[in-house]
Amino acid sequence: MRPFAYVKPVDVEAAVHAATTEPGAKYLGGGTNLVDLMREGIERPDTVVDVTGLPLDTVEELPDGGLRVGALVRNSVLAADRRVRARYPVLSQALLAGASAQLRNMATVGGNLLQRTRCAYFYDPASACNKRQPGSGCDALGGFNRGHAILGASESCIATHPSDMCVALAALDAVVEVHGVHGPRRIPLTDFHRLPGHTPDIETELAPGDLVTAVELPPLTADSRYRKVRDRASYAFALVSVAAALRVQDGTVTEVRLALGGVAPKPWRAREAERILLGGPADEAAFRHAAEAELAAATVLPDNAFKAGLAVATITATLRELNEGEAR
């Protein structure tokens, strides 16, 4: 590991100042992703700004019935929070599906938002990767791409976003609070991450020095659920995952939210499927039709073509379970 300077600021303003004035600075929260990337030589910060001492580790009630989650809240704490389990089961389930207990005890909400892809070519310095080294190419396109994206990818990058939590947050219309050199601002979670286009190395809408301070969850009246399909039940990244919320009245869908993981370079909000479902019948045929319409835009490669059908089946099954729960 390369030598680096270490700074531990006392407040948010000092953290932003350090991150914008210290050379090659990176924020450090739980470190479950950054430290690994530093060990591999992928991230090479000259300065590490440790934000773990900042007062950003609480879950607070909002006047409208939502929750404000501090960026330093640990994943295990958030998953176990009674308010989250009762009001946002999709989020609790996603967090519990996301990693081992040891990692959840260390990982933070802010760090989870910013974790980088687990594409094997990104982690291999001998491979071409536009995300790691812009302009070098993408070896995944002609390589082993079974786990790679089928929606929202480009000729420059087909890596998937690894987070389970972010898929749930996308379905919940969460808002990310950010503090930068010009003060605080708010970014909808669905706009926070960027698709790769020709610049896959630019992964979020954050400006240099921006610090994620919290995530706001609006109130949710619909029942919700997270389903993750993976190669093994213990600590594996999603092949396909679905975060869904559904409300049905008299057999008609009155509220629906869908987001997909494991299929795109960012948490994928399934807007087309939502559009088709809203106001229509809540039955198996409608669920499958909406899922197929969402996946109609998929661009597949030989190794990952199975994901399109798997996504359709997973969306359909998740909505079916929610609908059956509504009927009971």
TrEMBL record:
Highest rank taxon of the organism: Bacteria
Residue stretches making up the FAD-binding PCMH-type domain: 1-222
Oxidoreductase as UniProt keyword: yes
Pfam families documented for this protein: CO_deh_flav_C, FAD_binding_5
This protein's UniProt keywords: Oxidoreductase
InterPro entries with a match to the protein in the record: CO_DH_flav_C, CO_DH_flav_C_dom_sf, Diverse_Substr_Oxidored, FAD-bd_PCMH, FAD-bd_PCMH-like_sf, FAD-bd_PCMH_sub1, FAD-bd_PCMH_sub2, Mopterin_DH_FAD-bd
Gene3D superfamilies per record: 3.30.465.10, CO dehydrogenase flavoprotein, C-terminal domain, Uridine Diphospho-n-acetylenolpyruvylglucosamine Reductase, domain 2
Protein name: FAD binding domain-containing protein
Organism of origin: Nonomuraea insulae
